[in-house]
């Protein structure tokens, strides 16, 4: 299954969630590929991978896909841009600022429909090798996010407890319906960076979110210092502080999502 972690607002926990959810899934014996679709390359750095300009990255597979349209073949095959992550079972297609260059090229040369479907096509040969492909989206709702949404079966929308953050979910869902059709319902909203002391704000936001009935995950990710520190040393929360509140929250998130995606643990319970 391909899952985009997406929200147009910056700093709402997309990268943190991509890395820690992927790690939690691996700890549940799932194989996971993270695709870094952010030119900031945060999940690439967060997994401890240092990319030089000459190293292959997600832009090379997108350029290859686009160049084939013109009967020209350059760029790289998806298998060549998969890097091993810090845990067995966790791989990465990395990104850096050069992804912007690829974007400019695509705008100039391809039709809208073609350029929006590139990532989907790129992932076709590898998606079945993994239980889950998790796409860490950049902020904004530009071409990169559109490619990610188009390629995904499921959207995970991290949001902070603020009016503006939840207001933008409407635009994201409208865009998603344009891309995937009006009947698309396979998304969940995840509250992140939650500070339980801000009771009135939290209550207000959750009340507003009741409009998305059944779409807000029970699990909330609490603001936790260990999560920030783990990011500073480029580790996932389970490697950095397995006993922390952050590790507990992301483990819980993986269980709740596995239940939605696989009927797990009920479907896998031993009698
Ligand atoms: N639960 C948390 N507790 C404490 N700090 C957190 C938590 N979640 C995220 N952070 C911190 O908040 C900052 C923003 O998080 P993150 O980079 O995951 O957001 P993002 O949505 O990916 O941002 P961008 O849109 O720029 O890609 C980071 O410094 C991260 O370490
Ligand atoms: Mg990010």
Can you put this structure into words, describing what you see?
With 271 residues, this protein is of the alpha/beta class. The protein has one domain (2-261): Rossmann fold (3-Layer(aba) Sandwich), CATH 3.40.50. It contains twelve helices and eight strands. Strands 3-4-2-5-1-6-7-8 form an eight-stranded mixed β-sheet, with helices on both faces. A hairpin with a 5-residue loop joins strand 3 (83-84) and strand 4. The longest helix is centred in the middle third of the chain and has 18 residues, at 163-180. The protein is globular. The two termini are 27 Å apart. The relative contact order is 0.18. Mean pLDDT is 92; it is low at 266-271. The chain binds adenosine-5'-triphosphate and magnesium ion (MG).
List the helices and strands and how they pair.
Layout: E1 2-5, H1 14-27, E2 32-36, H2 42-46, H3 58-68, E3 83-84, E4 90-93, H4 99-109, H5 112-116, H6 118-123, E5 132-136, H7 143-151, E6 154-160, H8 163-180, E7 187-194, H9 199-208, E8 216-222, H10 225-232, H11 237-240, H12 245-262
Parallel strand pairs: 1-5, 1-6, 2-4, 2-5, 6-7, 7-8
Antiparallel strand pairs: 3-4
Bound molecules: adenosine-5'-triphosphate (ATP) and magnesium ion (MG).
Magnesium ion binds next to helix 1.
Q: What does the main sheet amount to?
A: 8 strands, mixed
The parts where pLDDT drops under 50 for at least 5 residues are: 266-271
The end-to-end span amounts to 27 Å
Helix content: 40-55%
Q: Kindly estimate the percentage of residues that lie in beta strands according to DSSP.
A: 15-25%
Computed Rg: 18 Å
What gross morphology would you assign?
globular
Which molecules are bound besides the chains?
adenosine-5'-triphosphate, magnesium ion
Reading the helices and strands in chain order gives EHEHHEEHHHEHEHEHEHHH
* Structural domain tally: 1
Mean pLDDT: 92
Determine the CATH superfamily: P-loop containing nucleotide triphosphate hydrolases
The CATH architecture can be given as 3-Layer(aba) Sandwich
Number of helices: 12
CATH topology: Rossmann fold
- State the name of the first-level CATH class: Alpha Beta
DSSP E strands, number: 8
Q: Structural class, judged by helices and strands?
A: alpha/beta
Strand order within the widest sheet? 3-4-2-5-1-6-7-8
